[in-house]
Design a protein that fits this description.
α3 (about 60-70) runs antiparallel to α7 (about 110-130) and α5 packs across α10. About 40% of the residues are buried. α14 (about 325-330) links the parallel β3 (about 310-315) and β4. The protein has 19 helices and twelve strands. By secondary structure, it is an alpha/beta fold. Helix content is about 45%, strand content about 10%. It binds zinc ion. Zinc ion (ZN) binds near residues 238, 239, 276, 277 and 432. Zinc ion binds near residues 432 and 433.
């Protein structure tokens, strides 16, 4: 500018004033489109949708106001892309539904001051822009603009509707049709947030409905449930990988307390089909593998124990957004006593140390008079592992190893309470999945589909009274410690331990039965190329993903 109007400050200022607001608008448009540049699909669809907004309102002020929140979220979007490779969308919403707001705040807290400053700058600039009348976007006649809008919208909508109509017929039963629709827009930030939200809402509703539906089918026990008082505890671990347990041969002493427990049965070949919680926990509770073709959700353990007349407890240190919004929460709703140790009953709160659950567990066990079933859902070794244990456990090894040792301490406490209570009792412990500890993570443990992440610890402890009542089953469990297992063995094993038998139960999979049925151990990787891999014929590829041999 200074070169063009060197001798006329007034003209120069007028020119600058006319030009700079549009420079602001242009700059914001570029910033808004930046995260969509991870794929051609993204940039094209994003530009088209922005063009629809621009032509529809034909107001630079409206356009800038729409761009403002997108520009404000730019650092967050770029950070997300740096982790996952795609702009925020469906997976992020699932995380947001599953975690809670403060958990997310916990993740972004270190950068919050910079985000605040960034937001302030753009709000002030936008406020300046919006405070005065601005020009239209294009000087075309209304009819021409609307024709353009119609063409652009048709270009977006027609192929989407066609995709919807040609989805496989199974979509109503086992699939979420919004996911393939979303994948058309998964790079088109910020529109990926809208399609991702719809797909994620649909997904959580679908699974919640499924969990509610299964629990109302009647169950006919044969023989009738035993009436002896007993306490059955199922502890679901989190992100604990077998090869980091000293009890399974790890170098560091990560399991000192449970190793002291006489008669503990440690199964050493248990595999989970999923490397993430929402996939694995339904298998633990009902044997339901949502990626297995033709799989239908059976009864879940809590409902079966309810039907058998047990008092049922769900004690969890996981966040719960709401009974119908969280996949696991839908299962927990079946229990007669529900205790989320996170503040406000698990809604809008961050996880605390797992020991916060112990007083609740102790109360549930010591107050048990008849037959009681307790599910204890640990936060275990979940990211970030360093936040999962108190000071006393900080010196053993890496944060991940310390969290394993702390879980060992939790288990030993529950086991001791059960032993002190006396009578027939059984304690099952299994982790939902492992993690990548050092493989392709830069040393920070994180979810991932490396082979070792599918190998998990599985313990069974039973009281002396239980063993006296079931000597055959106690011996069979010891005989089965090297049998190849998957999480699908959990529901029949837990039912077996409680003496519950009914037609639909897959009793042949129980670890308390002689020669448990061996099925191909299909596990699910995170990409389309390794979605179904036979664990027993697999290896890790060079990028730390499980792959077919
Ligand atoms: Zn998990």
């Amino acid at each position: 500018m200074t070169a063009r109007f060197p001798h006329d400050p007034a003209r120069r200022q007028a020119g600058f004033q006319r030009l700079w607001p549009d420079t602001l608008l242009g700059l914001m448009a570029v910033l808004a489109l930046l995260p969509a540049c991870t794929a051609l699909q993204g940039i094209v669809r994003s530009v088209v949708l922005w063009a629809v907004v621009a032509l529809l309102f034909n107001s630079r002020r409206v356009l800038l106001a729409c761009l403002l929140p997108v520009v404000v979220l730019l650092p967050a979007a770029l950070y997300y892309i740096s982790i996952s490779g795609t702009p925020p969308g469906y997976p992020l919403w699932l995380i947001l539904f599953y975690c809670s707001f403060p958990v997310v705040v916990g993740y972004v807290r270190p950068v919050l001051p910079y985000l605040g400053l960034w937001t302030l700058v753009w709000v002030v600039l936008a406020g300046f822009y919006l405070s005065r009348p601005r020009r239209v976007v294009v000087g075309w006649r209304a009819r021409t603009r609307m024709a353009c809008v119609a063409v652009l919208l048709a270009w977006i909508i027609v192929p989407t509707v066609q995709l919807w109509r040609h989805l496989p017929p199974t979509r109503g039963g086992t699939e979420n049709p919004m996911v393939p629709i979303h994948s058309r827009f998964d790079r088109a930030w910020p529109w990926s947030m809208a399609t991702g939200y719809i797909a994620a809402r649909r997904e959580t509703r679908r699974v919640s409905e499924m969990a509610r539906r299964i629990s109302h089918e009647p169950i006919h026990f044969d023989p009738p449930p035993p009436t002896t008082p007993q306490v059955i505890v199922l502890v679901i671990g989190e992100s604990a990988r077998r090869d980091h347990h000293h009890s399974y041969g790890y170098g560091l002493s990560t399991t000192p307390e449970m190793e002291q427990v006489p008669g503990l049965v440690r199964f050493d070949d248990m595999v989970t089909p999923f490397d993430y919680t929402v996939g694995a926990v339904p298998v633990i509770l009902s044997g339901y593998d949502r990626l297995r073709p033709g799989a239908v959700p059976g009864h879940d353990l809590v409902s079966v124990f309810n039907a058998a007349g047990f008092d049922t407890w769900w004690i969890s240190n996981h966040p719960r957004l709401g009974p119908y919004d969280s996949v696991i929460g839908a299962y927990s709703e079946q229990a007669r006593h529900i205790a989320y140790t996170t503040v406000h009953d698990g809604i809008m709160s961050s996880p605390v140390l797992d020991e916060r659950m112990l007083p609740v567990v102790d109360h549930a066990i010591t107050d048990a008079h008849g037959r009681v079933f307790i599910v204890l859902h640990l936060f275990g070794s979940h990211e970030n592992a360093a936040d999962r244990y108190p000071r006393g456990f900080a010196s053993l090894g890496t944060a991940y190893d310390n969290s394993i040792a702390y879980t060992d301490h939790m288990l030993a406490h529950v086991r001791a309470t059960l032993a002190a209570h006396g009578g027939e009792s059984a304690l099952f412990y299994v982790s939902d999945h492992g993690v990548r500890v050092a493989e392709c993570t830069g040393g920070i443990p994180a979810h991932g589909d490396v082979r070792a992440a599918y190998e998990i610890p599985f313990y069974l402890w039973t009281s002396a009274a239980w063993q006296a009542a079931h000597p055959q089953a106690a011996q069979t469990a010891r005989d089965n410690v090297h049998v190849p297992l998957t999480l699908a063995a959990l529901p029949p094993s837990v039912l077996d331990a409680a003496g519950l038998h009914y037609g639909a139960a897959d009793a042949g999979l129980s670890v308390l039965s002689a020669h448990p049925v061996h099925m191909p151990r299909i596990v699910h990787g995170d990409s389309t190329t390794n979605q179904n891999v036979d664990y027993d014929h697999s290896h890790d590829n060079g990028r730390c993903h499980i792959a077919r041999n």
